[in-house]
Write a structure and sequence with these properties.
binds NADPH dihydro-nicotinamide-adenine-dinucleotide phosphate, about 240 residues, single chain, globular, Rossmann fold, about 50% helix
Amino acid sequence: MSKVIVITGASSGIGQATAELLAQQGNQLVLGARREARLQDLVKRIKAANGDAIYAVTDVTDLASVKNLAQTAIEHYGRIDVWMNNAGLMPQSNFIDGRVDDWNRMIDVNLRGVLNGIDAALPTMRKQKAGHFINTASIAAHATHPGGGVYSATKAGVLMISDALRQEEVQAQSNVRVTVVSPGAINTELVNSITDPNVKKGTAQFYDQVAINPDQIAASIAFAINTPEAASINELIIRPSKQQA
Ligand code: NDP
């Protein structure tokens, strides 16, 4: 059955690949990100392949902007079946380097952005007595390393927020499911968000060796969405086969 699916961070990488796959499967996509030209191109490509998609320029750090994305979905398609909180960035660095702006941006986008998405979509899902959040965390939610402290903290936060949300919705008998997606190294634009040149170089070299394409993550997300409603896939951890940790 066709679903109305909202994706933040849809202008590149995992969000874009997921949007394309879910549109091919006959769903109606509502795409959010800041770069309008990218969203326009994506909607054009989806429509050219007989898919159905719209977009709203969205900054996930701004609650009003995220609520506007939800409103766009409701005005156009009348409901929100799936909301994917996927926008994120990974400017890793050691604490001694004092890149406080990067820490704050990660907290704002990776953590506050997810909370804004929940606030924008949950009341509608409660009314519908149906819905599904897909929250993109990371394997960094499960383990950290030097330079990864703040990124891991935001992603571990996504994990905890998601499980509390899942439990609250079970208690409320709302039929709202929650799935966390925790990828390993995926070939996207994420490495470009690293501002420390040495960290960026090292990460890019690692990604060149092991990273896989986002299509595999998209396929796993589609699997979680298409799982019959009596079952809830709570977390998907997907590493490249070549990635050790
Ligand atoms: P990309 O850099 O390719 O995509 C990030 C997306 O987030 C872009 O569409 C970007 O769009 C959007 N975004 C960033 N800031 C904002 C904002 N303030 N408001 C709205 N959208 C925003 O990276 P990925 O596809 O890899 O990242 C997607 C998610 O996957 C992230 O949460 C990331 O942490 C996670 N992840 C990625 C892994 C990887 O190896 N690639 C591994 C584990 C997790 P725009 O700039 O147009 O706003």
